[in-house]
Amino acid sequence: MSTFKKSLLSLLAVVMFTMFVIQPDAASAATKISSASAIISKGKEYIGIRYVYGGSTPKGFDCSGFTSYTFKQQDIPLPRTAAEQYKKGIAVEKNDLRPGDLVFFKTTNKPISHVGIYIGGNKFIHSAGKGVAITDINDPYYWKSRYVGARRIIQPLSARLLA
Within 13 Å and on the Cβ side, how many CA atoms surround 127? Predict the structure, then answer.
């Protein structure tokens, strides 16, 4: 067999591998992208639901109960507490936030005591004193100074391919 034919067969093998191995990831990425918007949409359905300490259902949510419940609706399990959720996913810089990222705050003497879901435009949805609401992450009177960090639970295709 000539060198040209061997090279062509090798190239064909790479193309076939890409079609069968990477292509399902692309479909999965589309699902994950739609999951972020679905999570945000589902979260918005609960605007106005009252805050209940320890609450994790639409009868009443605390912050981490809201995030874990909302992600679970898209078959993405999260631990129950904000501190445990902070250990999941990958760290994200504030200037690189994407809709669906979890954002974390220090509102008590604990290092991580509050969590919400970033929805874009410097806004996040969360459950706090007034119940489920959308708030500006850079609110100078409260949230801006209490911001701790963010975690990406729904990873884009490029991150999964590099892993």
Answer: 29
Split into its structural domains, the chain has a count of: 1
Q: Which of 39, 55, 114, 153 is flagged as catalytic?
A: 114
The CATH number assigned to the domain holding 31 equals 3.90.1720.10
Catalytic residue status for 132: no
> What's this model's pTM, rounded to 2 decimal places?
0.77
Catalytic residue of the set 63, 102, 115, 128: 63
Q: What is the pLDDT of residues 43-57, one digit of tens each?
A: 999 999 999 999 999
Amino acid at 10: S
Annotation says 131 is catalytic = no
Grouping H, G, I as helix, E, B as strand and the rest as coil, residue 163 is coil
Tell me 79's DSSP state.
-
Task: Determine the structural domain holding residue 91 and report its residue range.
Answer: 3-162
Q: Is 63 a catalytic residue?
A: yes
In this structure, are residues 77 and 64 in contact, taking their beta carbons and an 8 Å threshold? no
